[in-house]
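does this look right to u?? protoporphyrin IX containing FE version
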Amino acid sequence: MISPPSFAGESTTISAIGTLISSGNPHGDNPRSRSRLIPLLSSFADVNGNRFSQSVDLQDIFRRFSFDSICRFSFGLDPGCLSLSLPVSEFALAFDLASKLSAERAISTSPLVWKIKRFFNLGSEKKLKEAIKSVHELAEGVIRHKRENGVVSSSHEDLLSRFMATINDDVFLRDIVISFLLAGRDTVSSGLTSFFWLLSENPRVVRLIREESDRVMGRENEKPVEFSQLREMHYLQAAVHESMRLFPPVQFDSKFCEEDDVLPDGTFVARGTRVTYHPYAMGRMERIWGEDCLEFKPERWLQNGVFKQVNPFKYPVFQAGPRVCLGKEMAVVEMKTVALSLIRRFDIQVSGSGQGPKFAPGLTATVRGGLPVFVRERME
Ligand code: HEM
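got this back:
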């Protein structure tokens, strides 16, 4: 039986994430090539620290971060997408294309259209087939690399090694690699991207997060946050949850009914029916969240200053019931650690903000055109 992704323990997760945020050179290679989140954003921040200068696509940076992070955590590999040169990862590109084309299938007017294209190997279906082939080859490469480097039997530190120690089926292992990339990469970067858009519109929330973290960690403390400190930051926890209420990374999700069934409210669902739950719509329903449902208000999650979790069926951002997200805790810890390290260090302003983000079709919410921001060293 494989343990869920939090097997390494939250404090281990934090230290692995911390390496990606600020470290130079974990393997003794060229420090420039291993620059991470803070050095990368510093390179875009205004040198005098007193005005905003060039803009950078924060969504792209977060996608690179979460790709490096999930590869390290799940496969013990480091693709180095956060290097200062912002290298293009073949794996990430093929993966993005396959996700985009799969999502476009779901919104096509009739499944007949893509089925005909697939049959004749035409247009988007031809491209999808090629992208899937690349993803498969690259995922198989990850497994081969681990076998050749002999890390499987000695190290169980990453998830893939754990699977490889007990499972010999290469197709199964390949699908594990792909599932974890899909589940853990774009979701976290999407959550962070929307959070920074909301923060840019709500400086009051930034101020309160800073005040809370200064109280817990000390104003001048530049060390990475510790897990015990993170647990004390109820306002930050509330702000991250509130952000995903309004902008859930998985905006909607469908299931197909295997047998005739009846929903708890008495609705009959025939076998084969597609049933969709919609966290994006639910997060904006007055009936569920009250009259102020469209406001970004972390306080709604606090009772006497303490974060209060809500029923996952009211807030199905991570699904609910037996198929709830296995990486939920890790994802929230990752988001809080990254957000905090940037909020404490930089002032980040979305360029041309005012309009809400517009999303591109995809399996996870992706802002069309990215999230251009200006960065400067923190002023207050
Ligand atoms: C903010 C970040 C995340 C969000 C919003 C999120 C959301 C979700 C949702 C909605 C599902 C259900 C999908 C479905 O039933 O079709 C799911 C499943 C899953 N997630 Fe996450 N996820 C996040 C991050 C992660 C991370 C970082 C990992 C791994 C390290 C992960 C691993 C998984 C796995 C393995 C499943 C499948 C569980 C199963 O089917 O039993 N997730 N996630």
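The chain has 16 helices and eleven strands. idk if thats expected tbh
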